[in-house]
Amino acid sequence: MEFSSKIIEQAVEAFAQLPGVGRKTALRYVLHVIKQDKHQTDNLNKLIQQLKTDLRFCKNCHNISEQEICEICTNPSRDQQILCVVQDYRDILAIENTGLYKGLYHVLGGLISPMEGITPSNLNIETLLSKLNDNTISEIILALNATMEGETTAFYLFRKIAPFNIKLSAIARGIAVGDELEYADEVTLGRSITNRIPFDSLLKK
User: What are 2-39's pLDDT values in tens digits?
Assistant: First the structure.
């Protein structure tokens, strides 16, 4: 792809680094930005800067937040005894959109994947286990993707959580094997959370 401007070429390369964005789509984004007025582009630039300067990870659950403790953790109406373990922020959005889960979350920040060099030490697992020491959690729901990495992570957590004698559930298999939570429709995901099953029953299949 030949460009008449080095600036356009560099902008296309930058947009093309975004997940799922090819060079043709990146070029459309660049041309759209060029057509916008200065106020719109200045606002976009400001928001991008704020993503790096004004956001942080919640000290309690590792959710993305503008405060030290996220709004979910500080909401007194949430069930403090139920903890839903998810891969990242996108899964929280998906589950919250169902309107059927009222507990708290714990964000792992990824899934165990030896092929990608992601080990348990790279995830927020120790902080999860530390929450179990004060005996305030009565149930943990593993809401992880139905992929090889998700299953590996779930089994690892099962072994780590077992000594605490806490109820451990997994979302029902309304989510097909190989699917990721963020792409599941709200009805299917909502039913999977509501009809969750004991995790050890999955190990017997």
Answer: 788 999 999 999 999 999 999 999 999 999 999 999 99
Answer yes or no: pTM beyond 0.90: no
* Main-chain dihedrals φ then ψ at residue 68, nearest 5 degrees: -65, -35
Pick left, alpha or beta for residue 20 (phi over 0 → left; psi -120 to 50 → alpha; otherwise beta).
left
Long-range contacts of 148-152 (CB under 8 A, 24+ apart): 149/111, 149/112, 149/113, 150/87, 150/111, 152/111, 152/112, 152/113
Nearest CA-CA partner of 166 in 193, 129, 191: 129
Find the angle CA(145)-CA(147)-CA(148) to the nearest 5 degrees.
130
- The string of pLDDT tens digits covering residues 119-131 is 999 999 999 999 9
Helix 186-194 × helix 89-96 angle, to 10°: 90
Q: Is 65 helix (H, G, I), strand (E, B) or coil?
A: strand
Three-class DSSP category at 176? coil
Nearest in space to 85 (alpha carbons), one of 165, 170, 166: 170
Find out whether 178 and 146 touch, Cβ atoms under 8 Å.
Answer: yes
